[in-house]
Amino acid sequence: MKKTSNINIEQVFDHLASVKKVEPSKDLYFKTKNAIKNQKTIPLFWVIAAACFLIAIVGVEFYTFSSKKNTFNQEISIVFPETNNILYHE
Fold this sequence. Notes:
Elements: H1 2-17, H2 28-37, H3 44-79
């Protein structure tokens, strides 16, 4: 069994020895640089506007939640009145 595994390993090494290093084209750097340069970018103004809008929405949601918390407790007390656990009147 060792002989077959050695033969397989030798075949793998022979195959790996025949692999050649790939060389990129000379203008690959310039193509990449031009592709990055030609990408559309979002202006900083719109990024700041979107961030302010999201912060405002989160603030309104927080304010709404905090003001509804008190009314929610009152609504629950109307639906579920506090029960008296006294079973016998003495």
